[in-house]
Amino acid sequence: MSAQLTAAERVAIARNPQRPNITDYIDALFTDFFECKGDRLCGEDAGILGGVALFHGRPVTIIGTRKGKTLEENLKCNFGMPSPEGYRKALRLMRQAEKFRRPIITLIDTSGAYPGLEAEAHGQGEAIARNLFEMSRLTVPIIAVITGEGNSGGALALAVADRVLMLENAVYAILSPEGFASILWKDASRHDEACELMKMTAEDLLNLGVIDDVVPEPDGGAHLAPAITFRQLDRCLVRHLAELDRMRGPALAAARYQKFRAMGAPAPQKEEQ
User: How buried is residue 147: exposed, middle or buried, by Cβ count under 10 Å (0-12/13-18/19+)?
Assistant: First the structure.
C-alpha cells in the first residue's frame, strides 16, 4: 500500500475525472478490441461498453461501465449510470463468452445504476437481478476489477466474479457515502464520517474477504502515472487468470457461488480442547 490516506481522501481520488477510464484500460491492456452494441431487445446504452479482444494473444470478453471524458461523452453515457439496456447488453456478451469459452473481464466505475423513471419502466431491477443470477452460473473464468467507484447493485451486476480486484484508491460499497449519511443521520454533510464507517476502501474489503486482491497505484492516484497502474493491473490479471485456468467449468461456478454465499457469514467457532 502507498501512503496512508483516509477513506474520504480515497473517495476523492476514486472520483477524480482524470483517472483512467475503461477505454484507457482497453487501449493499454488489450489488442484487437471489437465493440458489440445493443441488447437485442430495446436498444443501445453507451453507459456500458463491451466487446471481444485479445489479452496476451488470448480471446477474452471485456465489459465495463463507461463515464466518458468530455461533457458531451458524460451526457451520452449518463455519467456512467447504466440503464437496463446496458445490463442486458452485458448479459448478452457474457452468454456469448460462455458459448465460445472466453474468459470475462469486467471493469467497474459507477456511482450506481440509473434510477430514473424510464429505467424503472424498462425493468432496471429485473435486469440487475438477472445478471446476478446468470453470472453465478457461468462456467468460464470471470474477473471483476473496481477501477474507481463501485456503488450499489449497479456495480454488483458486473461483479459476481471468481476474482474481484480493486485498484488501491478505488471504493466499493452499497451506496455513496453521501447517500449513506443522508439515510443514517439525515445529514449528507457527514459523508467523511460515513466513509470511515462504511469500510469501503480496498484495504478494508480485502481484510473482510469481500475482494481478492488490491492493485497498487502510484502515490496520489492512477491518473498521475497511468502506465504504472496499467502494468500492475496487467500482472494481476495474468496471475489470476492462470490460477482460474486450473479449475474446470462446473467447479468454477460452484466455487463462485460458495464465495458469495460465505460473505458476511460468521466465522466458525473453534472447539475448546
Answer: buried
3-state SS string for 164-215: EEEECCCEEECCCHHHHHHHHHCCHHHHHHHHHHHCCEHHHHHHHCCCCEEE
pLDDT above 70: percentage of residues in the chain: 96
Packed helices 84-100 and 124-135: angle between N→C axes, nearest 10 degrees: 20
Residue with cell 474520504: 8
Calpha distance 120→126 (Å, rounded): 9
Partners of 45 in beta bridges: none
- Asked whether the beta carbons of 110 and 154 are under 8 A apart, the reply is yes
User: For 13, phi and psi rounded to 5 degrees?
Assistant: -70, -40
**Model confidence over 116-165: pLDDT tens digits?**
899 999 999 999 999 999 999 999 999 999 999 999 999 999 999 999 99
- Provide the 8-state DSSP code for 33: E
* Cβ density class 155-177: b for 16+ within 10 Å, e for less: bbbbbbbbbbbbbbbbbbbebbb
In the three-class reduction of DSSP (H, G, I as helix; E, B as strand; rest coil), residue 105 is classed as strand
Find where cell 471485456 sits.
Answer: 62
Q: Is the pTM of this model over 0.90?
A: yes
Q: What percentage of the chain has pLDDT greater than the value 90?
A: 87
Residue 202: pLDDT over 80: yes
